[in-house]
Write a structure and sequence with these properties.
globular; single chain; about 250 residues; 10-stranded mixed β-sheet; about 35% helix
């Protein structure tokens, strides 16, 4: 009895000193799935993009290896929701998503807004209601902002991917595109469009934080998230996070 008491006191002392760590999930290879969303992540980008590299490094520090599969966004969300894949790579946060998945801390911030062409003759707006006469392209299944997503007075046209929205914009089939400024500019550049024709309407709609979402259908999903957070803190503290951004041209 005295020996047990001594062991308990020793464990409490270790915990107080910060040397007793929470057990990790069983180390294994995890599968992340997402859509091509350059320049943040994509199957043809070096190291699948800087955001992928940040997440990969954080998971490795947390004790797990990862691979990435690229697919349409709606399918990616379903695969992770069902537990067929463990991790949804790169997602904006919403309370609804947090009920469906284990949502991570913010990993990176992207500026989100509306992009049009100089031909439209618009550079700013005061409220979304001013844009009721325009057709706005957006990604099917994507979150823009709560106000935009619920604005039934807007004419919104979904597309399966951003590349299609950019083609429709330059073809005059839509008037503007809602999304990340960096993504839209990159897609236009890849299509060799005239970037000088792009107008990023002011003000931006929001600065959106990017997260990973882990399946709640995976038995140890919450522990996997804890392992990821431990790794993310480690790469932030030792400079690896900053080094990856600098090496890949985003700092």
């Amino acid at each position: 009895m005295h020996r047990l008491k001594r062991l308990l006191l020793f464990a409490m002392a270790l915990l107080a000193a910060g040397t007793l760590t929470v057990p990790s999930a069983q180390a294994r290879q995890l599968t992340m799935c997402t859509v091509n969303w350059e320049p943040f992540y994509g199957e043809n980008l070096p190291r699948n993009g800087f955001f992928t590299e940040l997440v990969r490094e954080a998971f490795e520090r947390g004790g797990h290896t990862v691979n990435v599969e690229f697919m349409p966004w709606a399918r990616a969300m379903l695969e992770v929701k069902q537990g067929d894949r463990e991790v949804l790579l790169g997602a904006y946060y919403s309370d609804e998503r947090a009920e469906t998945y284990w949502a991570s801390e913010p990993i990176y911030t992207a500026e989100v807004g509306l992009v049009t062409l100089t031909d439209v003759g618009l550079e700013s707006f005061s409220s979304l209601r001013e844009l009721a006469g325009y057709t706005i392209g957006y990604g099917r299944g994507y979150i823009v902002t709560e106000e935009f997503d619920n604005a039934d007075y807007l004419t919104k046209e979904p597309a399966e991917d951003l590349a299609r929205n950019v083609r429709k914009l330059y073809a005059g089939r839509i008037d503007m595109v809602a999304g990340s400024f960096a993504n839209i500019r990159y897609a236009a550049q890849q299509q060799q469009r005239d970037l000088d024709r792009l107008r990023f309407l002011q003000p931006s709609l929001k600065e959106s934080t990017l997260h990973i979402m882990i399946s709640r259908a995976v038995p140890d999903g919450e522990q996997l998230l804890a392992d990821f957070h431990r790794g993310l803190r480690a790469i932030r503290e030792d400079g690896t996070y900053e080094r990856i951004l600098r090496e890949m041209g985003y700092l």
